[in-house]
Amino acid sequence: MSQQYEPAQQLPPSGWYPDPVDQTQERFWDGTSWTTRQRPQAVQPQPLPQQAAPQQQYGYQPRTDLQQQTGYPQQGYQPSGYVPQGYSQYQPAGYGPATADGVPLAGWWQRAWATIIDSLILGLATVGAALPFIDALATGMQAWVEDVVRAAQSGGIPPEYTDPQYGLAGPIMTIYLVSLIVSIIYSTGMLMWKGGTLGQMALGLRVVPVNTGAQQHGLRLGMSLIRSIAFYGLSAITIIGLINVLVPLGNRKRQALHDMIAKTQVVKIR
């Protein structure tokens, strides 16, 4: 059992800290006690100017009534020296952006390729689901193209494809709605089942609630549905959709707008 602390006021926040037993390592503090998770420490952290010691800063004292553990000092694990205010403010060289529990965040290109893969999958699914309407669309488009060619040959004014005689408005709107419904069902179902779409799984990505990168199961229904609706809803508006996919480049949590709405992050799990 890991050493516990008796809080007087407030314990340090969860995050990665220098391991008090092995200074070449970092150990994850879960907010109440040290865990068994370790990783190499690339750079020895330096105290910030006027940084208070943990006991002074957070007002806690280690418990002394617990049994001595073999291989550990009597006081147990204890954050010493510089205690960072969360992983985002202390990030050793060699580590990229990560969640609060230390799981690396997905890169922009990884997310982009995952979206491309999903778009291909959804394109095929939409064709299958909307096949009758695609046939009507093709018939109307063929008639319109023929009229455009005849108008060009005779020097007349080419007709607009929106002309009701071609009957294109209905099939186009229906195909769009089918595509939207298929996309939302696909995304929501995969997020609930696997925590990521097929494209994300292929790239080794997972969607998790903010700062819970170690989560191994899928998202809740509400969070999955909100994220899916937000993504495809924003994508329906060209300029907003473009902004949405570029936003992760400019924030430390690498969240797109739909991530912010659903309170999710995308992490790299392999």
Automatic annotation (TrEMBL):
Chain intervals with Low complexity compositional bias: 37-77
Transmembrane residue ranges: 120-145, 165-186, 229-250
Domain DUF2510: 15-45
Location of the region described as Disordered in the Swiss-Prot/TrEMBL record: 1-77
One cellular component term from this protein's GO annotations in UniProt: plasma membrane
Keyword Transmembrane listed: yes
Its membrane topology: Multi-pass membrane protein
Domain RDD: residue ranges: 105-263
Keywords for this protein: Cell membrane, Membrane, Transmembrane, Transmembrane helix
Keyword Repeat: no
Subcellular compartments: Cell membrane
InterPro entries recorded: DUF2510 (IPR018929), Pra-immunoreactive (IPR051791), RDD (IPR010432)
The protein's name: RDD family protein
Source organism of the structure: Brooklawnia propionicigenes
